[in-house]
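Training component of the fellowship. As part of building independent skills, the fellow (R.M.) carried out the full modelling exercise for a liganded target. The chosen ligand was pyridoxal-5'-phosphate. The inputs are recorded below so that the supervisory panel can assess the work.
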Amino acid sequence: MFTGRHLLTDHVEVERKIASGGYKWTPLAPEVIPAFVAEHDLGPFPVMQEKLREVVELGGFGYHLGAEAFAEAFSGWWSRRHGWDADPALVVPNTSVLQGVWASVEAFTNLGDAVVLPTPVYFPFHDIGPTTGRRVVEWQLVRDSEGWHHDLDDLELLLVQDPGIRLLLLCHPHNPTGKVLTPAQLTRIVELAIEHDVIIASDEIHADFTYPGNKHVPTATIPGAAPVTVTLTSGIKTFAIGGLRASVAAFADERLLARFNQIPTNLLGGQNRLGSLAAVVGWNHGDDWVDELVALFDRHRHHLLDRLANELPDIRVHMPESTFLAWLDLSSYEPGDRPGSWLRNRTNVLGKDGPLFGSGGEGHVRLTFGTSTAMLDQILDRLVAGLGGSGNR
Ligand SMILES: Cc1ncc(COP(=O)(O)O)c(C=O)c1O
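Fellow's submitted model of the complex:
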């Protein structure tokens, strides 16, 4: 019996990361610390690695029939962690969350229809316009002294003004701001979706990293949401297994699933066996490990904000309620239109360029704090050394 207890190690072996060939750690000059990918450094979950090793040793690489176990494990995890008893029969296993996004665009909209994006937002979403013949309508988050907010009156205005809007792509929790939508906000969003004949594609890939003080409420659990909501998620952020390709489009309503199923099945690809198995092991045995991981990243977000407030007060940043991403506003340094490169040149820390995330991203860099405490301090030391003091501006 696996327990997974106390197996998290707060340590990153850089040589091993580089040798393992992952995207985050390979393309860079050795002196640069990568903090640009939304992937944490503390995997793999040892129990998962052990199970994968068994399959590798047996050479179990043929076609597989893992969909049922995958859907059951997904449902169990979301029930325990997020209070959603998803029906495994309404789970569509697929390859990646972005594939689920594009499949939702295909299934629930027609050429010329519009898709709403809450901007600034995870940059690949901005490819929807150029690649699908749909129009993109930006629902801009607003920022005040407390942080970033979804303004629901603004959303209503967009829906009233553009009757061609058929899909709302929620990023919940929100990448890059770490904002978590409350049940009251979700309830209003669902009301608006029903009123304006809009389907909600709710990308909940970061849900597991929601910190004390906030709670992740799956959109699908909001009363009335089921007929208008598809949930797109996976275990890849939680377990740092992005390369293994296994994700979920989950429904809570058979009729909406039937609409989704009208797109050709082959557009949804098939799951990689190792990815499917990794997710099953993570979801069935990973509770204790993930509890430790989330507690560590909760400490990291406080540590990060404390150090920035004390040592680099010109960086404007708000406490992320979820995700292991910090959305740093470097505008006061006038970093130009490639703030990520600007920051890298001064600090040898590579974050992700804010302007790629659309309106609201100007002057920003997204920085991943999903790493060890020691690595986070190295990152912060470099920021302080590279940006500290007016002489460095
Ligand atoms: C909000 C969000 N959605 C989707 C993805 C990508 O998921 P996948 O690789 O399964 O397409 C990411 C990865 O960073 C993400 O942050």
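The panel noted the following from the submitted structure. The chain has two domains: 14-46+287-388, 62-285. Residues 287-311 form the longest helix (25 residues).
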